[in-house]
Structure formats: C-alpha cells, structure tokens
From TrEMBL:
Location of the protein in the cell: Cell membrane
Origin species: Variovorax dokdonensis
Transmembrane regions listed in the UniProt entry: 6-29, 41-66, 72-94, 126-147, 159-184, 196-214
Protein name: LysE family translocator
Membrane topology classification: Multi-pass membrane protein
Alphabetized UniProt keyword annotations: Cell membrane, Membrane, Transmembrane, Transmembrane helix
Protein transport recorded as keyword: no
InterPro entries: LeuE-type (IPR001123)
Length: 224
C-alpha cells in the first residue's frame, strides 16, 4: 500500500473527483427527488456495485484489454451510450405529477405517481455505471499513479485502492441522495419546477450518452 502521505492524497483526490457531477450523480439526484432519500440511497448502492465490476476487471487486466482493443471498446461504448440515452428518455417522458396529489411524506417522497421498485432503481444504477467503459479507463489511469514502482503484488494493491475509492464514493453519493431528498421535502410548492428539473436531468443523460457514443477508442489515434 502507499505510505500515509500518498494514501491521504489518494483519498483527497478521490473525494474531489466524486463531488464532480456526472451521470451517476444526476441519476442519484433524480431518484432522490422523485422517490425520496431511500430510492436515492439505493441508486447509490447500485452505482457502487457497478463500479466494483470495473475495479475487479481492471485489477485482473480485463479493462486493459478493453483499452487496447478498439472493437471491445466500441461494443461497450455503444451499449453504454444506448443505455444512457434510454435512461434520459425515461426521465424526459416521466409522468407529470398532479398538483392536486403528491403531498410530501415523512420519508421524503415528493410524487404520489407510480414509482419504480427499489430493485429496479438498484439495477438501473448498476447498469448506468457498469456499462460505461470510461469508468474502467478512469481506474486504469488514476489508481496506478498511487502504486509505487516495484510494489509486490500490484494487482492486489490496485484492487484495495479501487475498493477504498469506491467505499469513499459511496458516502459522497449518499450525501447527494439525502441532500436532494432534503431539498425536495422543502419544495412542495415547487413540484412542477422539480418536474422540469427531472426533464433537465434526462436531457443531460442523453447528452452524456451522445458524448460517449462519439468518444474515440484509446486504442486508436485521436482524430485530427
């Protein structure tokens, strides 16, 4: 493992990176605002589980293969892009809450309309992360910077650092979930505004999907 200063630098950098909004954060916030803190926390758990897939894959070298293979990257890229666009469209066309219903509940839920079962929220969070090959490439680029040259069993150290990163990210994601639910509970008179916020999150997801679809494979030279 890295020495204490390098380990603290790794933890600090990881926390800063996890505070940066991306597809995972927008998914957590949308679920928390629509169905409450519990759904947001379940979304965070699903994303954490998806991230574990990338960490283990990178530790055993699978992600390195994806980074080196244009065909493998392309398959994951298109599947991931299609899923992000699907999630975005689902948010864009979600049912508009009725102003006559949907009183705020103690659990923080802000919509009386149909809600997704928690297992489905977990699955969508898992797929949002697991189908994004850029997450795998991130771990391949970020974690090795904190592994000293000549370290014994570098794959094990990589796995431990990746799991530490994911553990710290979970608490940041819980913070996003509970923060979004807290704001939603205090915005009962702004239900339609939250409805349009969800539409905005859907558009952002579609944008993430399109950007992923246009991404160059790391195995190919960047287009000039």
């Amino acid at each position: 493992m890295p020495d204490t200063p390098h380990l603290l630098a790794f933890i600090g950098a990881g926390l800063l990176l996890n505070l940066t909004p991306g597809p995972d954060v927008f998914f957590i916030i949308s679920q928390a605002m629509r169905q409450g803190a519990r759904a947001g926390a379940v979304a965070a758990l699903g994303i954490t589980a998806g991230c574990c897939v990338h960490i283990v894959a990178a530790a055993v070298g699978v992600s390195a293969l994806v980074a080196a293979s244009a065909a493998a990257f392309a398959v994951l890229k298109w599947v991931g892009a299609a899923y992000l666009v699907y999630v975005g469209l689902t948010m864009l066309f979600a049912r508009t809450p009725s102003p006559a219903t949907g009183l705020v509940q103690g659990g923080g839920r802000v919509d009386d309309g149909p809600s997704a079962p928690l297992w489905q929220v977990f699955r969508r969070g898992f797929l949002t992360n697991a189908l994004n090959p850029k997450v795998a490439l991130f771990f391949l680029a970020f974690v090795p910077q904190f592994i000293a040259p000549g370290t014994e069993h570098p794959s094990q150290v990589f796995l431990l650092l990746g799991l530490l990163f994911n553990f710290n990210a979970l608490w940041v994601n819980f913070g996003w979930a509970f923060g979004a639910a807290w704001l939603a509970r205090r915005a009962g008179a702004m239900r339609r505004a939250m409805h349009w916020l969800e539409r905005g999150a859907g558009a952002i997801f579609i944008g993430f999907g399109l950007r992923l679809a246009l991404a160059d494979s790391p195995a190919e030279p960047a287009s000039r």
